[in-house]
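#struct-pred
JK: can someone run the complex with hexanoyl-coenzyme A? inputs below
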Amino acid sequence: MRERVAIVTGGSSGIGKAIAKKLAEAGANVVITGRNAERLEAAKAEIARAGGEVLTVPMDVRDPERVQQMVTATKEAFGRIDFLINNAAGNFLCPAENLSINGWNAVINIVLNGTWYCTQAVGKEWIAAGHPGAIVNIVTTYAWTAGPGVIHSACAKAGVLAMTRTLAVEWGSKYGIRVNAVAPGPIADTGGAERLLPDEEAVRKTVESVPLGRLGRPEEVADAVLFLLSPAAAYINGACLTVDGGQWLNRAPF
Ligand code: HXC
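RT: done, structure tokens with the ligand placed:
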């Protein structure tokens, strides 16, 4: 990863921060984005200790102009972009029948539209420069299974999975750009766990459903991302690598 430059959206906490750290440890320079400038600076200090240079860009992925500015700032700072990790997400538990239009739009805008704005902005740079980079989109297992209370997030993540596969074909064949996804299951110490596993009972039931008998760690998701971006995955395109301890296969049939 030495000399390589990676953009990690939502890189100031949880899975995004773990990904940025892992890439920095491997020698990459990283750009982390997030809405909270203070949290970004704290994360920068932590990631910089792992190695490499870190650029922070406070922004909301829902704003396509800011996304374009972030891409420009990355090129100015490092002169190149090699990897994009679309990790920024928004979620909360809400029964489908109670979800407001704004609630639906907030999550669709962050997860589906935000991923698209970043992907197109970075993809255009690669295409113009003749530089085949690689993208990893963070999705979730309920993008293809199901679960109550996450209709907005599930629909958005399923869209991101479709984006992954569509671009793997379109940009893979024309430009050699690889696009893959990683689907975490229940991961401790993340915004997702905070929202989706709000009490001890929810954690206990989830742990019981995981064949490996525990929640995952953000670093374990980061390992999968690092692999997909590395030369070891040079022939992997359009794949979705699940990191869930086997949970989604373990749904009781009755
Ligand atoms: C019902 C809710 C709600 C809740 C927000 N809304 N929280 N409705 N129940 N708990 C509604 C609001 O009432 C409002 O609608 C609309 O959503 C927008 O809310 P805002 O707070 O104004 O939006 P905003 O500040 O933009 O915040 C976006 C957010 C927030 C998505 C609501 O949670 C957020 O910023 N999240 C970012 C971090 C995050 O979610 N990380 C977890 C990702 S985990 P009205 O109608 O009232 O105006 C993940 C996958 C995990 O994605 C998979 C694990 C297995």
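RT: quick notes.
The first helix runs from residue 14 to 25.
The beta strands are 5-9, 29-34, 54-58, 83-86, 134-138, 178-184, 240-243.
JK: thanks, will look after standup
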